[in-house]
Design a protein that fits this description.
The complex is a heterodimer.
Chain A lengths: L1 E5 L2 H19 L7 E5 L6 H12 L8 E5 L1 E3 L10 H8 L11 E2 L8 H14 L5 E4 L21 E4 L2 H7 L13 E4 L2 H5 L4 E5 L5 H8 L18 E6 L8 H9 L1 H4 L10
Parallel strand pairs in A: 1-10, 2-3, 2-6, 3-5, 6-9, 9-10
Antiparallel strand pairs in A: 4-8, 7-8
Chain B lengths: L13 E5 L2 E4 L2 E3 L3 E4 L2 E3 L1 H8 L5 E4 L4 E4 L1 E6 L1 E2 L2 E2 L7 H11 L5 E8 L4 H10 L11 E2 L16 E3 L5 E3 L7 E4 L24 H8 L5 E6 L6 H10 L3 E4 L6 H9 L4 E2 L32 E4 L8 H10 L4 E3 L13 E4 L2 E6 L2 E4 L12 H12 L3 H7 L2 H7 L16 E4 L5 E6 L2 E5 L1
Parallel strand pairs in B: 1-6, 2-7, 8-11, 11-12, 11-15, 15-16, 16-17, 17-18, 18-19, 19-20
Antiparallel strand pairs in B: 1-4, 2-3, 4-5, 7-24, 9-10, 13-14, 21-22, 22-23, 24-25, 25-26
Classes of the chains: A alpha/beta, B alpha/beta.
GO molecular function (chain B): metal ion binding; N-acetylglucosamine-6-phosphate deacetylase activity
Protein name (chain B): N-acetylglucosamine-6-phosphate deacetylase
Enzyme class (chain B): hydrolase
Chain lengths: 272, 438
């Protein structure tokens, strides 16, 4: 893995956005050759999305030949609910860039048959040729997407019941009314993300530090599902100083020492 | 590079207003505004449901987009007097409708002052509801207030450009200010045509007006005997009852509100002044006798003349959500200084003042709606959003037409006014089409 250690949340967002930008430009997508991007929701990627929008507005990048697959969506809330992941993606990314609706894919939490919806999502990824770069975050309990502790490391897209902790944490987005918080979600599996050709995990904040430690300095374990990416050939973890607080000094020093090499990955590319 | 359109719900062209700040949820937000078939469109729904895109973009260059202004008290302008039965009543209304687009007004209620029955009979039969367009602002109808209205039967109207556009059910249109008002507070209204409810109430109304079909609002004095039945009956018919030109005390005013009255005609003017032991009609702003689910709105002529700024601030601070800006504009609005007719009387313009000729009684104002919005903001110190809502959202709430007018919510009619930060009107749109540009 590459562990990219930056000073703060803003730098993480910027580095990640530049990395994505360069990946897309180097891939040189076209009408017969789409770049397939996996995307997360939540507070962590917001900074990255803002930067991507900036790059689009400056003309540095286009999403015309990019297809996206989101990681998850709540079950049972209306698609236009302000807390749905459809609304999140529309408001924080899609409405600001030139992506076509038919090239975006988000699981439908209101599908008549949820299992079929999950299976067909896997089919769509396959039909698109697989994911080139899957971007994700990490939960304080080390989960990737909604693959809570105990999820099989070989899991695929499926329906998951949310942990009580997650429901309590989400109550603030539903007027503090527990009865309004969704209890189930559709999520890509650990193996679904592992199938991607490259994975980038964003981790910011001291409350994620322990999870990062468990994910990269301890063994592969289904209780900390992000640890599965130790067995992926191309993983990048991008984190801020606070998120490294539970790591060994030796680990941090090693990867900080590599920054001058890793930063070349985000240098502006020469114009074509 | 333009995205190919691929809309499953409708083939009609979609316009996207970009680079603008829109008034939504009581705030100015940096959001694009999408319009299709004369209505505000939900772009998220368009994206996910229809996979559709804009056909054309309008660059607003950083301007503010607000819902078009609504004037519920305007007596005429540019030489036209709505209270005169000329040979071309419709032409007169149309002329004013066209001119007030420059002030950002996209909907209005032609107002008639106290007049003899023959005037009402003639004018009301001619002034019909008309949706706005390139020809001018829309003469407002009043959406049925009852909740069980079948929305599938909305009238389809055709704009001159040929697009079929659906609107709210419109079936009324005028504001009748008088003649059932107080002698003591007649203001500029002609004394000889004042009337009382001597035949019991509704009979007097029908006799005087001829018809209530094209009426959206009636101003009356609630202290007149038999008024209770009239207020109740009018309110039940969906006609807004406004209290004005009256010497009612607070209890009489409160009773009228309980019977259905919901508006006060030009607060402070033509009513008893506020008194701390009987606040009169002004007391409605903070009355605890107003039913819970209702709001009492009040018209304010914010031209810097009809109301002292301190009084304006007292009213605004006491009851900010009820303030409705009105122009009460008269024939002379838009005309040079001199003498002009209003109803059955002659008035005289001196600078920004309009008096009953030979007196110092104010006869009405010649301020335009955008002037009023600017003056209101400056005098009250309120926010831009509040100033704009006083001329759009609040009158729409008063008339019960917020589903279509007075907001930029999805599904509302795309009647828009583009303004700069100093609240100067730069362009006006009706049903998504540009009808005036500076």
């Amino acid at each position: 893995m590459k562990l990219i250690i930056l000073n703060d949340y803003d730098q993480v967002g910027e580095w990640a956005a530049k990395y994505i930008r360069n990946k897309i430009i180097n891939f040189n997508p076209g009408p017969d050759r789409f770049f397939i991007l996996g995307l997360p929701t939540g507070g962590t990627p917001l900074g990255c999305y803002k930067k991507l929008i900036e790059f689009y507005k400056k003309g540095e990048i286009s999403f015309k030949y990019v297809k996206t697959f989101n990681m998850d969506e709540y079950v049972g809330i209306p698609r236009n609910h302000p807390e749905s992941y459809h609304s999140f993606m529309w408001n924080n990314l899609f409405k600001h860039i030139d992506i076509k609706s038919e090239n975006t894919h988000i699981l439908d939490g209101n599908a008549a048959n949820l299992v079929e919806e999950c299976d067909s999502f896997e089919e769509k990824i396959k039909a698109a040729g697989g994911i080139d770069l899957f971007v994700g975050g990490i939960g304080p309990d080390g989960h990737i997407a909604f693959n809570e502790p105990g999820s099989s490391l070989l899991s695929r897209t499926r329906v998951k019941t949310l942990a009580q902790d997650t429901i309590l944490a989400n109550a603030r987005f539903f007027d503090g009314d527990l009865s309004k918080v969704p209890t189930m979600a559709l999520t890509v599996g650990v193996a679904t993300v592992m199938d991607a050709r490259e994975v980038m995990i964003l981790i910011t904040g001291v409350h994620k530090a322990f999870a990062l430690y468990k994910a990269i300095e301890e063994g592969v374990n289904h209780m900390w599902t992000v640890s599965a990416f130790q067995q992926h050939p191309q993983t990048v973890f991008v984190c801020d100083e606070d998120a490294t607080l539970e790591l060994r000094v030796k680990t941090v020093k090693y990867f900080r020492g590599m920054m001058h090499v890793h930063n070349k990955l985000v240098d502006p590319l020469p114009p074509k | 590079w333009k995205m190919p359109t691929n809309k499953s719900v409708s083939k009609a062209p979609i316009t996207q207003f970009v680079n603008c700040r829109i008034l939504r949820d009581h705030k100015l937000q940096r959001e694009d505004l999408w319009v299709r078939e004369g209505r505000i469109l939900d772009p998220e729904k368009l994206f996910f449901d229809e996979e559709g895109y804009a056909d054309q973009r309008v660059d607003c260059e950083g301007l503010i987009i607000a819902p078009g202004f609504i004037d519920v008290q305007i007596n005429g302008g540019y030489g036209i007097d709505f209270s005169q039965a000329t040979s071309n009543v419709r032409g007169g209304v149309a002329l004013v409708a066209k001119k007030i687009l420059e002030h950002g007004v996209t909907s209005f209620l032609p107002t008639l002052v106290t007049s003899p029955p023959n005037i009402y009979h003639k004018v009301l039969s001619e002034v019909k509801v008309h949706s706005g367009g390139v020809e001018g602002a829309g003469v407002l109808g009043k959406e049925a207030v009852r909740k069980d209205v079948d929305t599938s039967s909305y009238v389809r109207l055709v704009l001159i450009s040929g697009h079929d556009i659906q609107y709210c059910i419109p079936y009324n249109c005028c504001h009748l200010e008088g003649p059932f008002i107080s002698l003591e507070k007649k203001g500029a209204h002609p004394e000889q045509y004042l009337r009382s409810f001597q035949s019991g109430g509704m009979l007097d109304l029908i006799e005087t007006y001829g018809t209530l079909d094209n009426v959206a609002m009636v101003t009356l004095a609630p202290e007149l005997p038999n008024s209770e039945k009239v207020v109740r009956e009018l309110a039940q018919r969906g006609i807004t009852v406004s209290l004005g030109h009256s010497v009612a005390n607070l209890s009489q005013a409160e009773e009228a509100v309980q019977n259905g009255a919901s508006f006060i005609t030009h607060l402070f003017n033509a009513m008893l002044p506020f008194h701390h032991r009987d606040p009169g009609i002004v007391g409605l702003l903070t009355s605890d006798q107003v039913p819970q689910d209702r709001t009492v709105f009040y018209g304010m002529i914010a031209d810097g003349i009809h109301t002292n700024s301190a009084a304006l601030r007292i009213a605004h601070r006491a009851h900010p959500t009820g303030l409705v800006l009105v122009t009460d504009a008269i024939t002379a609005m838009g005309l040079p200084p001199g003498r002009h007719t209003l109803g059955q009387q002659v008035i005289e313009i001196q600078g920004l003042h309009a008096y009953v000729a030979g007196t110092k009684t104010l006869s009405g104002s010649i301020a335009t709606m955008d002037m009023c919005v600017r003056h209101f903001k400056q005098a009250s110190g309120c926010s831009v959003e509040q100033a704009l809502e006083a001329a759009s959202l609040h009158p729409a709430q008063l008339l019960g037409i917020t589903r279509c007018k007075g907001t930029l919510d999805y599904g509302a009619d795309a009647d828009l006014v583009l303004l700069d930060d100093a609240i100067n009107v730069r362009a006006t749109y009706i049903a998504g089409q540009e009808v005036w540009r500076k």
